[in-house]
Amino acid sequence: MRKLLAKVEDGRFGRALAGFVAGWQWECKVRREGEVHGLIRYSGKEYRVVIAGRRARCSCADFAARGLFCKHIGVCGCGGAGRCRPEVPRRQPPPRPGGKFG
Ligand SMILES: [Zn+2]
């Protein structure tokens, strides 16, 4: 499973997701058609991520130095952006009792 994720986009995406589940906080600031602004916080740091259309930007050094999509953008575009949409929790049918109680 871990290896499978690592294959995706040179490991970047896999690491992003790994970080996300390891306690990153995503705070959505703006969300509209084709545009997402938000903050990612972890380890006392804060990164501002902006995705607008097909462009994206992040306040981290990784992005500033190389101009590449960093893991924060990955999270914003995938996990984070999906999260800030108010989702109606999918109702699941209650598990059927195996038998009668009493
Ligand atoms: Zn970044």
UniProtKB/TrEMBL annotation:
GO molecular function, one term: zinc ion binding
Biological classification of the source: Bacteria, Bacillati, Bacillota, Clostridia, Eubacteriales
Protein name (database record): SWIM zinc finger
Domain (SWIM-type): residue spans on this chain: 47-81
PROSITE patterns: ZF_SWIM
Keyword Metal-binding assigned: yes
Entry keyword set: Metal-binding, Zinc, Zinc-finger
